[in-house]
Each structure stands twice: as structure tokens, then as C-alpha cells.
Amino acid sequence: MNRRTVLSSGAAILALLTAPRLALALYAPRPAGWRTFELVTRIELPRDGQAAQAWVPVPSMDEELWSKPGETTWEANTDEVALATDPDSGARMVHAVWAADSEPAVLTVTSTVATQNRSVDLLTPRGKPSLSNEARATFTAATELLPTDGIVAETAAAITEGAKDDFEKARRIYEWVVEQTERDPEVRGCGLGDIASMLQTGDLTGKCADLNALYVGLARASGIPARDLYGIRVAPSAFGYKSLGTGSEVITKSQHCRAEVFLEGFGWVPTDPADVRKVVLEEPPNTLTLASREVEDVRAALFGSSEGNWIAFNDAHDVALPGKEEEVLPFLMYPAAEVGGEMRDELDPDAFTYSITVREVTA
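Request: output the structure for the sequence above.
Response:
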């Protein structure tokens, strides 16, 4: 990426940071009480007499202000099934193993989780506790697809040059990602998140696991703790944005990756430049631009707040699957399975086969 281009866009971003915002927002999530959802994932693997394994991610993020995982139960036509935890990240999954047999391998996993809207007051630092040295090292570390050196470090340095503190750096990176990227509807699933390749080729298109990973990688390369949150949309947006929610109880293809950055005095701050770009591309009447009122409000809100119509599974990268440790996934957001030693395509649920449904649990 051309350094002069990055610096030029940085000047435009600085102007955006100081521009006045509209007083009445169309999109403004605020904490408004907890909602509980029941998530059901059903796998049925045709296997022609072969052995099989499956791994189903379940809610693992226990966060006082916005996420409370509940109970996870399962039913399966095998006795070899258990709740497993990734030792490095704490990501949880139900792992099932079937011996060779002719009947389909069937697993149904049911989880409950409570969630609510988030909103961080970014005007007044509140002395939130700092991260431990261990946690800071974890959330500034490179991963397989998120290097923090080379072109990633160079791009981050150009974007944040002259910034007075981590808050300004984090906000500049957010605005830069919003300005420079585009959502590509042809990308399978949520994308891969190979940010070095994106920057090297100059192709800054993709979906949430690409664009939000770019944010996280640039923040980490700037020395700011950041993380991807892998989860799934479970309800419509309360603000009427069709692109920011799901309108059906069938959510098999509703996965979404969000991001967070840790800022001293504020704690973990939600940020989602990918959803800004989703609104531009997908929100009716499908003619919006970054200058549209609907987009401006989402852009302002999604650095510091998030809507509770989505649940988080985990923040894990480079996940080794128990029972198949040589199979390392870049992230764990979809069910995974193998039949006869061959991994199924998790992005093709109809051929896999699996389905995910949700219902809101009311008292």
C-alpha cells in the first residue's frame, strides 16, 4: 500500500473525527435490559459406514456487562460426546465422536445465553482496571493470519502517525478501515481474515472476518490490545436496519464477527467497521453511501456501542480441534466435522449437513 495514500486518507480521517455529529441518531444502542436466547445446532452427517467427528462452538464469552452464557446440553447417537475447552483461548465446543457405522451421525446441541446492548461513554474515562501483563501480551500478539510486522506494522504506523494516545490511534484505525475497505458479497461465509495479503495486494474487500480482522491486526501492530469476537446474529435490529439483524428463527448463515479494542480508562470498547460497510452495501434501498444519514449514524455508533441482537461464541484464533489436533482453524465460528478423516465444508451447511435455529426465551 502506498504510504502517501495512507497519509492522505489519514488527513481526511482527522477531519472526520472533529466534524460535528447529528444530535438525533437513527442508530444508538444503549443498555436496556437482558434478553435470553436459546440456540439449537443440529448436525446429521451421512457417512457410508465411516467413522466421524464433529465440533460445535457454544457461547463462551462471560462478560459482566453484555454476555452471560447459560447451560449447554446435547443429544447424540453416540456415547462419546463431551464439552471441550480450548486451553489457550477458553473457547468451548461440544465434541462428538462416532465409530464406523452405516447410519448418519446425529448431534443436537442446545445452549442458552443472555445478552444486552452495550454503550461505552467515550467522553469520560472512568478508571477501568488495566489488563494484566499476560492478557496484554495475548491481545497484542500476532496470529497465523494477523501478523503485526511487515506491511501491517508499516500501514498502522502511517495511519496513527502523530496521534497523541491510544484512544486517537484506535479511532483513526477505525475510520481508516471504514474509508478504505468495501464489503464483497461474493466472498464465501464471513471471509478468512488474511490481512497481510489484503494489504500487499491492495484488495481491501471482504466480509466481517476480513474487515474487522484488519482493524484488530492494525491495532495490535500499534501496540493496542484488540480482539475479534466470533458469534452469530439472533434477532432483528431494534432500529429497523435489515442488514444488522436476522428476521428468521433459522440462523444457519447468520454468523458475524465483531471486534473490540482495550483502551485505558474505558476497558474493552466494541468496534465494528465491517458492519458499517454492510449497511452501505445491503441496507435498502441499496443506494447508500458513506455520506448517507443512515450510514453516518451507524458509523458513529459502532465505535463504542453494539446492539444485543447478536451472541458471542469466543475470541479464539488458531484453534486446534480436540481429537484432530493437526487441524488448526483460523477461528471457531461454524460447526466443524470430518467423515472418514476428510473435513466437511463448514461454509456449505446443506451438503455438510447442519442447521442452526434460535428462539428468545421469555420469563
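The mean pLDDT is 93.
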